[in-house]
Amino acid sequence: MADSIMKTPLLIVGLSLLILSSGCISKPTATPSGGHGQPSKVEPGLPAETPAAHDARMEWWREARFGMFIHWGLYAIPAGEWKGKTDHAEWIRESAQIPLAEYDQFLGQFNPVKFNPDTWARLARRAGMKYLVITSKHHDGFALWDSKVSDFDVMATPFQRDILKELSAACRKEDVRFCTYHSIMDWHHPDYLPRRNWEKATRSTDGADFDRFRGYLKSQLQEIVSGYNPGVLWFDGEWEDTWTHAMGQDLDDYVRGLNKNIIINNRVDKGRHGMAGQTKEGGFRGDFGTPEQEIPDQGIPGVDWESCMTMNRHWGWNAADTQWKSTEDLVRKLIDIASKGGNFLLNIGPRPDGTFPDQAIERLEGIGHWMDKNSDSIYGTQASPVGKPAWGRCTQKQRSNGQTRLFFHVFDWPTDGKLVVTGVTGKPLKATLLDGGKKLKFAENASGVTIDVPGKPGNLLATVITLDLAKPAPADRNRN
Length: 480
Ligand code: FHN
Description:
Helix content: 25-40%
Shape: globular
Number of helices: 11
Distance between the termini: 41 Å
Strand order of the largest sheet: 5-4-3-2-1-7-6
Structural class: alpha/beta
Order of helices and strands: HHHEHHHEHEHEHEEHEHEEEEEEEE
CATH architecture of the largest domain: Alpha-Beta Barrel
CATH superfamily of the largest domain: Glycosidases
Bound molecules: ligand FHN
Low-confidence stretches: 1-43, 475-480
Strand content: 15-25%
Largest sheet: 7 strands, parallel
Radius of gyration: 23 Å
Number of strands: 15
C-alpha cells in the first residue's frame, strides 16, 4: 500500500492525514482554538490572550480575505518530470524517490535570472490580493533566504540572492502583507526523523537527534521572523508521528515570543482535521483553520479559516499540467469562501526562471478586473445572513452609520428581471448595482425582498447588487 501511494503526493498527504487524524474526514467541528471571541487556550508558557486582543491581532487578516500562495524552490527545476513521468511537483524528491546526492545537484542549477520581486508583488496587488505567503522552506529543506545555520540555501546556488529579503521589500512597496510558509517536515536535515521509507536502507539515522532538529527549526524561524517580519507564519508538514502536540505548543510559544503580533495557522500543532483543515477539540494551537483544495459547505460561526487552493493541479511548477481552473471558477470560489466567512489563499507555482506561468498571470489579471469594481463586497465582510441563495452568494458588512449592507453576488441572472431574496431581516432602505451605483427598485414581501434588476448582468463572472438595511450591527460581531 505504501509504495502504491508514493506516486501521488496529494494522495500521500490526504491518506496519511486520514490515518493519523483518525476520523479526520468527519465534518469539521466548529472549535475555536483561539478563534474569534475566544481567548487562546494557551498552556503555561504564554499569558492567555483576551478576545479583544485576539480580534485586534487578527483584524488585518480578516479584512484582507484574499491572498497569494507561492510554492517555489529547487523542485521547480525538473518542472514535474522525472524519468518520463510528468505528474511530480514540490514532492518530487519523495514521489520520484530521488536520493539526496542526486537531488542536491539542483543547487547548481537554481538561477532564476528573470525573478523580479516587484513584478510578483504588483501582480498580487492588482489581483486584489492583500497578502502573500511564500515557501521559505518546503519539505525538501531548501531555504529561500540567506540562512546562517544551513548551507542548503539560496546562497549555495548560482543565484546567490536573498529571495525573502527582496520579496518582503517589494511587498512593502505594493502594500501587500508579506508572509511565509515553513515546513516542519524536512527531508534534508540529518536530524529530522523519520527518513523516507524508500531511503531508510541507504540513509542512516545514526546520530540523528530530533531535539537538535527542533533547535535548528527555531534558529531558522528566528532568522525569518526577525529578518523579514512575516505577518503570518503558515506552518505545514506537521503530520508525522515525530512531531507532537507538546512540540507544537512549544513552537507556537516560541514564535509568538519572537513577535507577539504574528498570526500562526493551525498546522503548527496536531489539531488539524486532515484536508478539511479545521482545528479539533483539545486546546490545539493555531489562529485559523486550513481547509486544503476544498471549501467548507457552510460558514463556521466563531472560527477563522482559510481555504488554500492551486490554480491547476499542482502546488509547485509542473510544465505538463494544463488543467487550469477558469477565471470565473476562481472568482466564484473567492465569493463562495467570503460568503462563508473565510479567506482564500490562491497558489502560484513559478517557473525555475523566476516567472509566473502565463496562464496564472491571465487569471490573476481577470480576477483583478473583477475586484477593481467589486472588492467592497469581499474585503472586511462577514458571512451571509441568508445562507446560500440558489442564484449565487451573499456577504454582509456593518456600516459606520449603523446600517448593514448586504452584497448579493448573482451567478445566475434572473430571466424575469426579479431577484428574489428570502430570509432578509431588517428594514430594507436602498438597493443598487455595486458597479456604478445605479439605484434599483425593490419590494418587501413576507419571505424577504424582491429587487427589480436590469435585463442583463453587468458582469458574467458575478454581478453584485447591494441592499442596505436599517439594522444595527450584530451584538457580538460574530464572524459569520
Ligand atoms: O505536502 C504539502 C503540499 O506540498 C503543499 O505545500 C500543501 C499546501 O497547503 N500542503 C501540504 C499538503 O497538505
